[in-house]
Structure formats: structure tokens, C-alpha cells
Amino acid sequence: MEDPARIMQALGGVALGGHSVQGGMGLPPSHGLEGADGDGRKQDIGDILQQIMTITDQSLDEAQAKKHSLNCHRMKPALFSVLCEIKEKTGLSIRGAQEDDPPDPQLMRLDNMLLAEGVSGPEKGSASAAAAAAAAAVGGGVDNSVEHSDYRAKLTQIRQIYHTELEKYEQACNEFTTHVMNLLREQSRTRPISPKEIERMVGIIHRKFSSIQMQLKQSTCEAVMILRSRFLDARRKRRNFSKQATEILNEYFYSHLSNPYPSEEAKEELAKKCQITVSQGVGSTITVSQVSNWFGNKRIRYKKNIGKFQEEANLYAAKTAVNAAHAVAAAVQNSQADSPTTPNSGFQMKDEEFQMDATESKNSLLPNMFTGSSGSFSLPNSGDMFMSMQGLNGASYAGAQVGAGVQSQGDTIRHAISQAVGYNDGLRGHLYSPHGLNGNGGWHDAPTPSSVTSPTEGAGSVHSDTSN
DNA sequence: AGCGATGATTATTG
DNA sequence: CAATAATCATCGCT
């Protein structure tokens, strides 16, 4: 183990691609020829060895000259035999030092992790593609939306650094190996070096470099772990959705109250819509999985305490109702002649809001209301819609035909109204009636709210309630 | 600080 | 595997 170590020491000046490798190469300081005997020749040998050692530190010309003089030295044959002798004696220790490299379990662990994290592994195509793959691998899902861009970018960075470093080390290793081999071959003329020893040398160099690589891998792993934990922490650190986003989600929720389970496409659309709406602002972007979370939370919380959400339900139901009404009105052109209520007041005061809603949601909201949920949207009942509108405005419904207004409590009244409307509607019971979830409290079995269930029953009782 | 609202995570279930 | 239910952790307000 000594020979090679010294040689490496002698070659220590070789540049390693500009990278410090101090950690990996724990080279022992050079002592003299510790085990050498033969005091008489020791001095001579020491001198010559010294010359050999310093060869590499000198310019080529000098080195050539020195080598030449060495080779022509009269003592050369003697020295050679002496070296052979010494070598024979130390040969045993060399054999003993022969270490095979068992697949280091830790290295394998690191490799596996890097592979799993997408840091190592096949370098496919562009960096962005690789980054995407990496992100997908980490996310463990199809959730490769904008939210992860930060994470992805950092992971890509790590990946790039890792690969460049790895490349550099590999290159340095190769250079170093060839350099050493050349030197050894060269020196084999001055001292006995068998090809086997060169081979062994190469092996040792490779081991050294692979230990450096392991360090690199380790630190890369650490970096990924840190990045990951930060990322997870950041995810836990929630940010409330923007008002508009919540609005959009709520609109969908309450307009699909009978079956508030948006399909994957619907979720995507909602997420997209939320992004667009919030795009300019600093507001958080919303992902599909966040939409899923939101609906999950919303369903459970709504079901848990319908009362608490009633006001909100009315609000959004009315909103969509306004949309619907407006659309219907536009389509049918003032066919509300029958309407028992006074359409104008309630209708118009919401109009401006409608404008806004209509522009931002005309594509999905209306179709949902009419096709998605009820299938039929016979007009005659539009009066109910106006009723609900007024109710939610809180202001003007009092004078309207629903006499219940006597009680000042707006909430209860709105609740009652909503129930009444929920039962009557031509827009189908799901509009925002809590009865949308079958009396048992579950949505599960009613994916397709058999809609046309005529308003016959229910309506009566509820109505009577309200009017009293 | 306390508290409710709310987004996210976890465990359970069919 | 998606939905639910429970729980966690933070936000926003008072």
C-alpha cells in the first residue's frame, strides 16, 4: 500500500479539473523508505529515489535529461536489483493489501435514491424534459402543475450540478489514470513495475475517485432531501385561495349541489379558471389536486353543517340563477309576463354583477346548469328564480309575495325560501336545496339527480312552512 | 392569545 | 383509487 501512495503523492500536483479533492484523497505524508535495510547503500538509493520523485515536478526537458542520466548511471543495474529485492520483501504486504471492492451498500443506497428522485438515471433529451420526468417521479402523481415549478427548477439545478460534477470527476479520473499509467510505464525502466501492479494502481485510483463520487452523491442526496423537506413544509404552510378562486369554486359547488363531484376535466377547468382569474395578481395558483381538496373539504363541511352554509348557498345559487335567468331571458325574450313577482327590481339590481359573472363563466356555468344538472329548464318557473334572487339580496324580497318576511331574521327566511325554491324549481331540485343530498345525508347514490322528479310533493309542505 | 375558517394531510372504507 | 372523516397547521380577524 505504500508504493502507490507515494506515487500518488508525487503526482499530487496534477490538476483535477479545477476541483479540490482534498476530502477523497487522504494521502499519507511521505516518509523515507521506512522498511529499507542496507545502511551502506541507503544513502545512494535515497538520493536516486529522490531524483525519481522530483522528476515529475520538473519540466519535460529537465526530466528527460535527468531520466537519461539516471538510466545511464553506472549504478543503475545495481539499483535496479536492489529495488527488485526490496520489492520482493514488501511483496507480501502488497498482496495483503489487495482489497476487492464489494458493492458498497451505502453507495447502492445513494444510487437508488438519486435514481428515485430523478437526479441520476437516464439523461433523456433536453433538460426540461428530464426535469419534468424528475418532478413527476417525485410528485408521484400527474400533478405537475405550476405549483411545483419552483421545486422542479431547483431539482433541475441540482441535477445539472450533479451531472457536470460527475462528468468532471470522470474526466479527471481518466486523465489521472492515463497520466499515472504513462508515468509508471516510464518508470518501469528505472525500477521494476509489473503490468499487474499498474493494473492494481489503476484500481486504486478508481477507488479513490469513486469515493469522491460517493461524496458527491451523498451531498446531492442531502441537497435533494433538504429541498424536498422545504417543499413539503411550504406545502403545509397553506395560503388561502384568492377571493375570486373561492368564488369560482363555490359557484360550481352550489350549482352542482346535488352532485358536487366534478370530473377530472371539470376540475382541470376550474383550476385553469382560477389561475386565469388570479393570473395577474400575486394570488396563489390553484392546481387540480387543490381543487380536489377543496371539494372534499367543502362537501364534508357543507354536509356537516348545512345551516351554516345556507346563506352562502343562497348567494351562489342566486348568482347562478341570475345567470340562468338572464340567459333564459335573453333566449326567450321577455316571456316572463306571467311572473307573479316584479321581475324588474330584483333582476336589474343584480344585472351588473351578472355582467361580470357572465363574462367570466359563460362557458361552463350555463351549460352546467342546463344540461349537466337538470336537463330541462322549462321557463314557466322562472319566477322562483327571481324570488331567490331577491331573497339573497336581502333587501327587497320583503315586499314580495312570500309573506314570511315578517320575521326579521333574514337567515331563516332565506333558508325557507331557498327550500321552497329548491323544491319547486324548473331548474331542478338540486339548485341549492339541502335536500339535494338525499335525506340520509349522502350524495353518493345520486350522481344523476333524476331531475324531473316533479315538484309535486315537498313543495306543499315547505311552502306552507314559509308562508307561516 | 384566542378562535373560527380553511387548505392540506392522514387514516379508513368500499 | 377516490371519497370520507378526522386531524393538523396556518391564516385572518378580534
TrEMBL record:
This is Pre-B-cell leukemia transcription factor 3. Residues 438-468 are annotated as: Disordered. One of its GO terms (molecular function) is DNA-binding transcription factor activity. The keyword Metal-binding does not apply. Residues 40-233 form the PBC domain. Its main location: nucleus. Pfam families: Homeobox_KN, PBC. It comes from Alosa alosa (allis shad). InterPro entries: HD (IPR001356), Homeodomain-like_sf (IPR009057), KN_HD (IPR008422), PBX_PBC_dom (IPR005542), TALE_homeobox (IPR050224). Belongs to the TALE/PBX homeobox family. The keyword DNA-binding applies. Residues 232-305 form the Homeobox domain. Residues 234-306 bind DNA. One of its GO terms (cellular component) is nucleus. Keywords: DNA-binding, Homeobox, Nucleus.
